[in-house]
Amino acid sequence: LLYCCFSSEQSSSIDQNSLNLDSFFQFIVNSINSNIESLLNSQNELKQDNNTDDDTKNELISSKQLLISRLIIIIPKFLDKFQDLLPTYKEIAINTLNNILINSLELSRGFEINKSDYDADNNLGIIKSSILISFTYYNYFTRAKSFTKEIQCNLLLIISSLNSSSQEDTDMLILEALSIIICIDNQFATNANADIVKLIYSIAFKDPSNISTNQLARECLQDLLRDIPLNNYYIQCEFGIKAVVEIIDNSLSKSNDGISYTHELDLSLDFLNVFLLGPNQKDPLDEDDDDEDEEDDEEKDGHSHAGHNHDHDHDDDHSACDHGHKKDSKTPFVINVD
Q1: What's the whole-model pTM score?
Q2: Rounded Cα–Cα distance for residues 287 and 305 (Å)
Q3: Cβ(289)–Cβ(297) below 8 Å
Q4: Residue 257 CB partners (closer than 8 Å, separation 6+)
Q5: Which helix (H) or strand (E) holds 304?
Q6: Chain-centre distance for alpha carbon 282
Q7: CA of 246: how far to CAs of 208, 214, 238, 270, in Å?
Q8: What does the pLDDT look like over 16-32, one tens digit per residue?
Q9: What DSSP line would sit under 3-41, residue for residue?
């Protein structure tokens, strides 16, 4: 485990006969599942325990969460380290992540049902955050589109449950993971409602002065809208444009001598610009920055966010969410102002 986490040597330096990788990997997965079950049992036992104070109970629950979280994070590192010795490592990664998500969400539901006074504020945030961190590590060696819609939906459930209580650092983590989650299938994510737009807005407008968060939120919105069908786009506009126009309108009504600058207004105009470009139109302002775009393309080909290098393994047809590949639309997108 220590080698997997910290060694920078290549996996080829490991003698395949010296370690049964399949058995060892299964040991890690089984440890996660057994500890998830143990955590739920511990919660039930502590609920009935009147001899232990609440602080001690919370400490016991947190320690179990930390163990599960460390095991969850180590799985993609393990697969990345030994991928040359595991021919089906991508399939293993997808199946394992799906299994962890299902078990974790079942744990979360059970935890919510059995909550007591001592853990009323505990939403298993440590485990949920570790799943998002782990997911960004999976993206080092598995393209976003390889993951299933079920995984996409379950990851969005985790993000939604974390959002209400998240702080600045967690918001950055959420948006970084969200940018990859959207790219699993942005058409599927936009065909019924505008929940992801609402999620992006709720995170970004917590602190509209945070430049880093704003940049990630804008990229998430661009990824969400990129190349989606017009019907999907209209669904997103119904909430997305209306919300920012209301903010702009409020800014106008508060001042008699022009619009006063606010970070909220600036962010609203930024989001409005993304919407007005439509699902497949290149920003004309970008044409003056071709040299800078080329540099950005090289960086974004690996989907780099906050120091990570998440490679989406883009298709040749530059399908939706292929970062770093801006598209020119042959048919300009037109908005009917009526």
Answers
A1: 0.78
A2: 24
A3: no
A4: none
A5: strand 304-305
A6: 25
A7: 16, 19, 12, 14
A8: 566 688 888 889 999 99
A9: HHHH--S-GGGS-GGGS-HHHHHHHHHHHHHHHHHHHHH
